[in-house]
Specification:
The protein has eight helices and seven strands. The chain is α/β, with parallel strands linked by helices. The strands form two sheets. The protein has a five-stranded parallel β-sheet, with helices on both faces. A two-stranded antiparallel sheet has the order 5-6. It binds BIS(adenosine)-5'-pentaphosphate and zinc ion. Zinc ion (ZN) binds next to α1.
C-alpha cells in the first residue's frame, strides 16, 4: 500500500503513523522528522531548512523532493509506505507521481485528517516528543507515565521549537494556502478518504483501519 497522510499541524499524522505502519508493514517517511534530524545534526540540508521551519513556513520543494526521492529507493519502502507531511504543495504531488511512475507504482489512498483550526492550538502547545524515536505525548490527551520522561527509553521529552501558539498561526496559514490544493489534486483522482480526526485517537485509528482494509 502507498498511503499519504494530509492534514493541518497537530491533526494526528505522527500519532497514527506508527500504528498503521505496524498493521500493514509499511515504511513511515515523515519529512518533518527527517528535517528536524538534519537540523539537529547541522547537516547542509538542516542548515538550509532551519530558518523556514522556525518561522512555520514550508521549506523549498527541491529540498523535500530530494529527501523523498532518496528515501523511496530504500528496500524497506519497496512494499509500500506512509508519507506523513509530504506532499504539501501541488508541485510536490506532481513530482511524487513522476517518481512513482518510474517505478511502475502509484499512490493508493490519501487519508485526509479533518480537524477544525480551533482544536489544534491545545494539541500543539501540549505536545511533548521523544526526539530519537519520534514518539509523541500530550500533557492532557496522552500523558507519559512520568511527566517529561519517555515511557520506553526513560529519556527526557522535549517540546518542538515551532510548537508555540504564535508559530502555529504561520503553519496553519501555510496549510490552508499551500496544502489545501493538494487535497483537491487527489480528489480529482478519486483516492481521498475523509477522516473525522477530532475524535479520540483510538477512534481515528479504527476509521483508518476500516479505510485501508
Ligand atoms: P511537520 O513535522 O510535518 O509538522 P506538521 O505538519 O505541522 O504536523 P505536526 O507534526 O505538528 O502534527 P501531527 O499531525 O503529526 O500531530 P501529532 O500526531 O504529533 O513539519 C514541520 C515543518 O517542517 C514545517 O512547518 C515545514 O517547515 C517543514 N516541512 C515538513 N514537510 C515539508 C514539506 N513536505 N514541504 C515543505 N516543508 C516541509 O499530534 C499532535 C498532538 O496532539 C500530540 O501531542 C498528540 O498526542 C495529540 N493528539 C493526536 N491525535 C489526537 C486525538 N485524536 N485527540 C487528542 N489529541 C491527539
Ligand atoms: Zn508530525
Amino acid at each position: 500500500k502507498r498511503i499519504i497522510l494530509v492534514g493541518p499541524p497537530g491533526c494526528g499524522k505522527g500519532t497514527q503513523s506508527p500504528i498503521i505502519k505496524e498493521d500493514f508493514c509499511l515504511c513511515h517517511l515523515a519529512t518533518g522528522d527527517m528535517l528536524r534530524a538534519a537540523v539537529a545534526k547541522k547537516t547542509p540540508l538542516g542548515l538550509q531548512a532551519k530558518a523556514a521551519m522556525d518561522k512555520g513556513e514550508l521549506v523549498t520543494d527541491d529540498l523535500v523532493v530530494g529527501i523523498i526521492d532518496e528515501a523511496l529507493t530504500r528496500p524497506s519502502c519497496s512494499k509500500g509506505f506512509i508519507l506523513d507531511g509530504f506532499p504539501r504543495t501541488v508541485v510536490q504531488a506532481e513530482k511524487l507521481d513522476a517518481m512513482l511512475e518510474k517505478q511502475g507504482h502509484k499512490v493508493d489512498k490519501v487519508l485526509n485528517f479533518n480537524v477544525e483550526d480551533s482544536v489544534l492550538e491545545e494539541r500543539i502547545t501540549g505536545r511533548w516528543i521523544h526526539p530519537s524515536s519520534g514518539r509523541s505525548y500530550h500533557s492532557k490527551f496522552a500523558p507519559p507515565k512520568v511527566p517529561g520522561i519517555d515511557d520506553i527509553s526513560g529519556e527526557p521529552l522535549i517540546q518542538r521549537k515551532d510548537d508555540t501558539a504564535e508559530v502555529l498561526k504561520s503553519r496553519l496559514d501555510a496549510f490552508h494556502k499551500q496544502t489545501t490544493p493538494v487535497i483537491a489534486y487527489y480528489l480529482q483522482k478519486g483516492i481521498v478518504v475523509d477522516l473525522q480526526a477530532e475524535k479520540p485517537a483510538k477512534d481515528v485509528t479504527s476509521q483508518i483501519e476500516k479505510a485501508l482494509s
